[in-house]
Amino acid sequence: MRAFFAVGLPDDLAAPVAEAQAAFEGADGLRFVDPEQAHVTLTFLGEVDDADAGDADAESDAPALDDVTAAGERAVADADADPFECSVEGFGVFPSLDYVSVVWAGIGDGSAELTALHGALEAEATALGVDPADHAFTPHVTLARMDDARGKDLVQEVVRNRDPEIGRFEVEAVRLVSSTLTSDGPTYETVASFEL
User: Fold this and answer.
1) How many Å apart are CA 195 and CA 175, to the nearest integer?
2) Any idea where the domains of the chain sit in the sequence?
């Protein structure tokens, strides 16, 4: 299964996230994410073998689910983070305004704590053989993905000229999430949760 460590947004932020997405509605080529599945990805793991460690496929390079779960527990303990509040605010894009691939809402308050959690999770994942990310960590909530550049001008205009305050939420746990790709977009399921 494809999996990642994340912090989920509460249900009451789905409507504000949808309102933020509405700022980009006229941008052709954008594919919006489901606001009810909004989250902050802390570390992407890729494929995880969902068999028990002793039963995992010996030929697979994928880490076993038991090992990944234990790594998540260790990382959250090592980060030594207490519950904290995050603010979702402002817009940004990856990789740049000249070439837009992802449109996102940023994290203001709580950014340092999320970055610390990312560092601990990334270290544990790398120890399991997961390739580390090839870019700096930027805490964010993905709003849309750009399939083609038809709407790039509108995206650039909105990102440059709007700085919305989308909402606040309390982070009390890190989740291990499985991602299943479907024709309607990915669906997510929490596999394990690690309380702060």
Assistant:
1) 9
2) 2-195
* pTM above threshold 0.85: yes
Q: Phi, psi at residue 184, to the nearest 5°?
A: -95, 10
Rounded Cα distance, 191 and 188, in Å: 9
User: Are 60 and 51 contacting, i.e. CB atoms less than 8 angstroms apart?
Assistant: no
pLDDT tens-place values along the chain, 196 residues long: 999 999 999 999 999 999 999 999 999 999 999 999 999 999 999 999 986 555 555 556 889 999 999 999 999 999 988 999 999 999 999 999 999 999 999 999 999 999 999 999 999 999 999 998 888 999 999 999 999 989 999 999 999 999 999 999 999 999 999 998 887 778 899 999 999 9
Query: What CATH class has 2-195?
Result: alpha beta
**Per-position DSSP letters for the chain, written without gaps between them:** -EEEEEEEPPGGGHHHHHHHHHTTTT-TTEEEPPGGG-EEEEEEEEE-B-S-GGGS-TT--SPBHHHHHHHHHHHHHHHTPPPEEEEEEEEEEEE-SSSEEEEEEEE-TTHHHHHHHHHHHHHHHHHTTPPPPSS----EEEEEEESSGGGHHHHHHHHHH---EEEEEEE-EEEEEEEEEETTEEEEEEEEEEE-
- Return the closest-CA partner of residue 20 out of 104, 86, 82: 104
